[in-house]
Amino acid sequence: MSLPRRLAHHGSRALLAAGLLALAYAAYVVIDAHAYQAIEHRRFEAVAAPHALSEPAAVDGSPIGELRIPRLGLTVVVVQGDSDAILRRAVGHLADTALPGEAGNVVLAGHRDTFFRPLKHIRAGDAVTVRTARGDVGYVVESTRVVAPTDLQVLEPTGGHTLTLITCFPFRYLGAAPERFVVLARESDAPRQDIR
Question: DSSP labels for the chain?
Fold first, then answer.
């Protein structure tokens, strides 16, 4: 076998091996995220049960609730914190923002290529529910916008009860996306369920 053919043969094997490793890693990330969601969902259900004695503290990595957007078929556990490890496996609640049910701006972040991919179809009027150990808090989407990653105004406290969802944008961008997609929702007029 000539040198160019041997190089091509070894090169194709190396590319095949790299492709298989990339697929294995992608499968691991998906399986890990689903397993984590199942475990955290069970942990959340245990503290949200009617007989639970206390509400969990909002410490990094602890489940604080569950986000639901029925029209998009989105249901995902919300965990305190926004580290890479947390956002790879769940939606994260940003520290120093209000907790669901409190006055102020509740800010949740998620990756566009995992749990927040359905947000590309969200629209004004969509119902959003954040289920917590204290009960359900309902919101209605008011608007969406695209901002620069340096625009921190979306994190600022508000005078009312608001929910801000943040993910990277554009949704189909490969690599680190240059912008952020922001969803603004306000607490609905419907009575809260079981907020203590």
Answer: --HHHHHHHHHHHHHHHHHHHHHHHHHHHHHHHHHHHHHHHHHHHHHHSTT--SPPP--TT-EEEEEEEGGGTEEEEEEE---HHHHHHSEEEPTTSPPTTSSEEEEEE--TTTTTGGGGG--TT-EEEEEETTEEEEEEEEEEEEE-TT-GGGGS--SSEEEEEEEEESTT--SS-SEEEEEEEEE-SSPPBS--
pTM of the model: 0.77
| Ordered structural domains, the chain, with CATH | 31-187 (2.40.260.10)
Residue-wise pLDDT tens digits, 149-160? 999 999 999 888
Q: What is the pLDDT of residues 111-128, one digit of tens each?
A: 998 899 999 999 999 999
